[in-house]
Amino acid sequence: MQEALVLLMLIIFPVKVASSSATPSEPTLSLPGCPDKCGDVTIPYPFGIGDGCAAISFNPSFAVTCNSTFQPPRPMIYAPASADSNTSTPMEVINISLERGEVSIYAPVGYKCFKANTNTLDNYTGEFSLEGTPLILSTTRNRFVVIGCSALGLIGSSNPDFSVAGCFSYCEGLNQTSDGAPCSGKGCCETTISPNFTAFQAVVANVTLLPSFNPCIYAMLVQVGWYSFRRQDLVGHLGFISERATRGVPVLSDWAIRNGSCPKEGAMAPQDYACISTNSYCMNASNGPGYLCSCSKGYKGNPYLREGCQDINECEMRKQDPKYSALYPCKKGVCINTPGGYICRCRIGTRSDGTNSGCQPVLSQSEQVIIVMKLQRRKHRKEKDEYFKQNGGLRLYDEMRSRQVDTILILTETEIQQATENYSDDRVLGCGGHGTVYRGILDDGKEVAIKKSKVIDDGCREEFVNEIIILSQINHRNIVKLLGCCLEVDVPMLVYEFISSGTLFEFLHENDQRLSAPLDLRLKIATQSAEALAYIHSSTSRTILHGDVKSLNILLDNEYNAKVSDFGASALKPMDKNDFIMLIQGTLGYLDPETFVSHHLTDKSDVYSFGVVLLELITRKRAIYIDNHNEKKSLSHTFILMFHQNELRDILDSEIVDNEVMVVLEKLADLIMHCLSPRGDERPTMKEVAEHLQMLRRLQMQLVTKTNPIRAHYSYGGPATTVTSGHGDSQSGVGC
């Protein structure tokens, strides 16, 4: 039993598996098969890591070494060894930009420190060389900065021409400086450098004795905007380097394809031309000789790779981030992507505003509204016609002409809306997971119940009209009659006769003033319901299963005659997992154990559920009820236990317990036990159940006549006390 409950919970509340969604990939930047990153730094071609991955034919320094002794690894560029030295110093790369043609590298800091305890000086000249590489120091993006009090800093280079620049910084105490102050001479100073620097030496000298609070002075070439003065930089032995420049300071260099130039317009490009991607172009380097490549407007990626420049989808970018709406404007139009650009197409009723990036109305606002209304009306009429065809309306008309179906009404959506006062909440009889049932009044004043379902399987629309044809031919006094349908909506609606006195569930369980229900009345309701179910199982042109037998789906008219409703629904479409979950949620306490395992309804599924309804009738307890200990119990499970323990009287409703009819109640209990058999093939058919109930009803009449002739003539065939309850959703099979 516990395992079954666990399985039930898994079916009702299935575990959801998170699915990942892929994001659009960016254009590749490295050669195919080559690493595109070293640590956190992207390495785009012509730079590359490993054999065959860099454009060393243009310059050997395009080869990048990835030093994995660090975590994360650090990319290094080596300048060719100079004539004075057989070794080259590695330069750590911070960033490489294809678009701007820049490489950011760490450069050393020159310094001079006075050690008070030894009266000695500690000197270091910050030397840096890019000679032989495709890199040239940026004149506009770097500044020479000196830090210290009484500090004179110089930066010099002899390549290509000898040049020197410098500045002087002075202060008498820390209080004369302030954090964030510009480097204008107090605590620090800065100056520009000459063009075409490929190597430099940064030195610093003290003009007077260094004050004790400022034992070290510094000189460095650094990227504009990186350094901000702090008084703490003046304090301590090599304090600035240990706190802010352990790996050096960033400098920006411009790179280019130095051994070539852009071909003249109309001339053939040389064989070693670097701009090989389609939709790319060449531009001369802004710093030093050579050229750079760039993707054409409307494209992005790597122009140094074949097909490296890919189209930018401006329309998708507009959707992803509002800032692109200003960059790629398309005001009141429809954005359509094109290779290398986009177009802004104007909708019907608008035209270009003259900017090619926006639209304006052609007609006045009132004229536009009229056109839109006409288009919507035409579209709505077309949708109605399509729905009517999809839902088998033409087939139903053919059947009506051939007189196969002559009792069914085909209503328009407008007629349904009028009948329900446009689906007014005041007209709702019931609602639930499957849909809503409304009380409607047709043009001839007839009251009906209109079932508006939520969904239907597209593969079963033809089957749906077959069911309408079959159900419309059913004419049984104890079955709620199908009167008509509406097919010109997405999900077809069904129209049933209206039963005004509520459901068996309400009669037994929900009345404020509990109405008397003698055994003969209960047997009458049971017998009529069983006859209705037996009829749809065996007396129609094809077997129809109810699939949702419960006291909520048995209506009572004003003479307490039973009317079985909402049958045939299970045959309208096959039962998938979601349908089965909905079935379980709506029929807990009534569900056949075999159906629970197989997910398959049979006529014996209806027999089991009807057995539970019989239990409700003789116990006046709900299928899932609250016992004296405030615990939820299954009525069928409790009954089976008490039956086997010979405690039948204890579970029966006291109103019907009487020695003179105990034989009837015992035989009825025995019938219920057969209906509740775990195996379907051990249960009786509904026809056998109906016959047995008829026999018990006659036996009860005989016993009562024998002992109490007056009581035997008590009739429920005439007007009965009105059941003070709403219609519920008895004609929908769902509960609010």
Q: What features would you describe in this structure?
A:
- It is found in: Membrane.
- This is Protein kinase domain-containing protein.
- Keywords: ATP-binding, Disulfide bond, EGF-like domain, Glycoprotein, Kinase, Nucleotide-binding, Serine/threonine-protein kinase, Signal, Transferase.
- This protein has about 725 residues and is an alpha+beta fold.
- It has six domains: about 30-80, no CATH class; about 100-255, no CATH class; about 260-310, no CATH class; about 315-345 and about 350-360, no CATH class; about 385-495, Phosphorylase Kinase, domain 1 (2-Layer Sandwich), CATH 3.30.200.20; about 505-710, Orthogonal Bundle (Transferase(Phosphotransferase), domain 1).
- Helix content is about 25%, strand content about 25%.
- It is built from 18 helices and 36 strands.
- The chain has a seven-stranded mixed sheet, with no helix packed on it. A six-stranded mixed sheet has the order 27-31-32-30-29-28, with helices on both faces. It has a five-stranded antiparallel sheet with strand order 9-8-17-12-15, with no helix packed on it.
- The model is unreliable at about 1-25, about 400-405, about 570-575 and about 710-735 (pLDDT under 50).
